[in-house]
Amino acid sequence: MKTTQNYLVFTDLDGTLLNHEDYTFDAAKPMLEWLKRHDIPVIFTTSKTRRECLLLQEKMGLHTPFIVENGAAICQGDTVLEMLGLPYAEIRRFTERHKEAFGMLPFSDMSVAEVMAHTGFDFAQAEMAKEREFSEPFLLHDETKLAALQECAEAEGFKILKGGRFYHCVGRGQDKGKAVKRLMARYPESVTVGLGDNYNDIDLLEAVEIPVLIPRHDGTAIDYSRNGLIRAAHPGSLGWRESLERVFDVSV
């Protein structure tokens, strides 16, 4: 087993630590317990909201800082330690202004029932997912309009990211990698591990020393490569656990 002193594990949630289909993480539980026993922080780095993260931390027994809404803010419990994105009202004005021209269906225009239908969430989960503070997930009816939408967003100070189920409109100056680097400064001389499965995780994987790419739920992987990249053999929580077993040279 490698020495575990001063490691940090930054992890995406949906499709990475959480299984895509049902958001469970059973296969990851032994590794989560091992990391807790060895005092290795597990830091969510996700498109999810603050309330969603707090609920998942409670389920997993974690008390670490976490990064929400694609790098928009670093949080600890109910406190926003650092805001790196734009307030939701500014994001919402952009999507409202352009949704008809580009065929966008933003979260804010969906009922809780519609969010449930598109995500598989229960009612409470869907309500929490709609409580955006810094970003707007949306569906795009016509993919051929994506490039023009991205150009429009860039010109107005925003950015469009692609996640597992939705696109996300965020502030142009934010991404998961920048938030990871800001949080790393709070843990000097740490060795950083990062796990993700989709295009909005690339900045996270670029920011860490040990990047782990998890395949998507259908077994395919995004087009990404860098030196030292670990490619997980399985999607979701099983791939998450097995990859970290490789990183720490343990079997849990």
Q: What gross morphology would you assign?
A: globular
- Helix-strand sequence: EHEHEEEHEHHEHEEHEHEEH
Secondary structure: helix percent: 25-40%
Number of strands: 12
SS field, number of helical segments = 9
Class inferred from helices and paired strands: alpha/beta
Order of strands in the sheet with the most strands? 2-1-10-11-12
CA-atom Rg in angstroms: 17 Å
- Major sheet details: 5 strands, parallel
Which keywords apply here?
single chain, about 250 residues, alpha/beta, 5-stranded parallel β-sheet, globular
Mind explaining what this structure looks like?
With 252 residues, the chain is of the alpha/beta class. It has helices spanning 29-37, 50-60, 88-102, 112-119, 123-130, 146-155, 176-184, 202-207, 236-248, and strands at 7-11, 42-44, 66-68, 73-76, 79-83, 104-106, 136-140, 158-162, 167-171, 191-196, 210-213, 230-231. The strands form three sheets. A five-stranded parallel sheet has the order 2-1-10-11-12. Strands 6-7-9-8 form a four-stranded antiparallel sheet, covered by helices on one side. Strands 3-4-5 form a three-stranded antiparallel sheet, covered by helices on one side. The N and C termini lie close together (11 Å). The model has no long low-confidence stretch (mean pLDDT 93).
